[in-house]
Amino acid sequence: MDKIALITGASRGIGAATALLAARQGWAVAVNYQGNQAAADAVVQQIRAAGGTALAVQADVADEAQVLAMFATIDAQLGRITALVNNAGVVDTTQRVDEMSVARLRRMFDINVIGSFICAREAVRRMSAKHGGAGGSIVNVSSAAARLGAAHQYVDYAAAKGAIDTFTVGLAREVAAEGIRVNAVRPGLIETDIHASGGLPDRVRDLAHQVPMLRGGTAEEVAEAIVWLMSDASPYTTMSLLEVSGGR
Ligand code: NAD
């Protein structure tokens, strides 16, 4: 099977680490970004400099028209994808539930849930044996918060990731016989810019003592799990929710 992957939100953090590792393992990688083209181009350049194949592709994953245009570009320039990593996500820790606006709730679910759903739909249309595809692997980036609940001013984020877990299990069942595996990775406390963007820049330092391994994880450590699930090294693994959280 060709190794062609789309990784959403891949201009930084876990997505960028996944793009770099996947490219080192022979994947041609479409590096999705929403707004920061320079950062996505830097990831692409790093991959190309090491002899790999990569392409920066813009789309807000919550915008169906932009996602369709992105897939058309990938089809034309790399071919049909055989792996999708639904990694794009946002967190916001600035409001308790009694302060939370419906606009914020909708955006949280639009990006974390609807965006993953739209990308997965387009992936199934390309991977499924029913559509003439060669099969493939979909990896959804959930969160340990889906299980822990996240009662720290981001209950909406935890609920969205809970939806991702249930979506993973249902989709895995639906397409298993068509050659598509679907799994989720649940990162714990990982050192990326998402915490500063979400309003708590010191979150990893403040909470590391709660992790049995007594430290936050790195984006590269999460990427190892994601790339394993993308690859032929996990041929009989589907419908799993893999915790990468230092035991948290
Ligand atoms: P990050 O903020 O560095 O990366 C998220 C990426 O998603 C960014 O590049 C951002 O631009 C992109 N993005 C956001 N909205 C988008 C949209 N509408 N369309 C396209 N791209 C969009 O954070 P990260 O920690 O690397 O997060 C990656 C994933 O891991 C997210 O789904 C996040 O919820 C999940 N996660 C992170 C942690 C952690 O502690 N860092 C823990 C659990 C789960």
Automatic annotation (TrEMBL):
GO molecular function: glucose 1-dehydrogenase [NAD(P)+] activity
Enzyme Commission code: 1.1.1.47
Key words, A-Z: Oxidoreductase
Pfam families assigned to the protein according to its UniProt record, in alphabetical order: adh_short_C2 (PF13561)
Family matches, as PANTHER family: NADPH-DEPENDENT ALDEHYDE REDUCTASE-LIKE PROTEIN, CHLOROPLASTIC-RELATED (PTHR48107), RE15974P (PTHR48107:SF7)
Family: Belongs to the short-chain dehydrogenases/reductases (SDR) family.
Protein name: NAD(P)-dependent oxidoreductase
Organism annotation: Acidovorax kalamii
